[in-house]
């Protein structure tokens, strides 16, 4: 459920919008953090980006495997390739 904050910001000439520090602190968004952008009808939603497993979507205990993000649980379920 969305809650109105009463905060209004203008878009600058480069298309940027400043997110107030109080909101960033509340949501744990720091400088240089990546945000995901979602569109729902006429709404634009921002969410702090968390790398997640490509198989199950889990964002905890993830690692990179051949350039893809995979969680430790899915890594442990991967079959071991047969020896040639």
Automatic annotation (TrEMBL):
Stored Gene3D superfamilies: 2.10.260.10
Q: Which PANTHER family match?
A: PTHR36432, TRANSITION STATE REGULATOR ABH-RELATED
Q: Which Pfam families match?
A: MazE_antitoxin (PF04014)
Q: Which residues form the SpoVT-AbrB domain?
A: 6-51
Q: Which domain of life is it from?
A: Bacteria
The reply to whether Hydrolase figures as a keyword in the UniProt entry is no
Query: Which GO biological process annotations does it have?
Result: sporulation resulting in formation of a cellular spore
MF terms from GO for this chain are: DNA binding; identical protein binding
What's the name of the protein? AbrB/MazE/SpoVT family DNA-binding domain-containing protein
User: Which spans are transmembrane here?
Assistant: none
Q: Which UniProt keywords apply?
A: Activator, DNA-binding, Repressor, Sporulation, Transcription, Transcription regulation
Supply the source organism for this entry.
Paenibacillus aurantius
């Amino acid at each position: 459920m969305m809650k109105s904050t009463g905060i209004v910001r203008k878009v600058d000439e480069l298309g940027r919008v400043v997110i107030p520090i109080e909101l960033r602190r509340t949501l744990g968004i720091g400088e240089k953090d990546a945000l995901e952008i979602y569109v729902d009808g006429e709404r634009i939603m921002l969410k702090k980006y968390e790398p997640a497993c490509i198989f199950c979507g889990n964002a905890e205990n993830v690692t990179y495997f051949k350039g893809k993000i995979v969680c430790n649980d899915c890594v442990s379920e991967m079959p071991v390739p047969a020896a040639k």
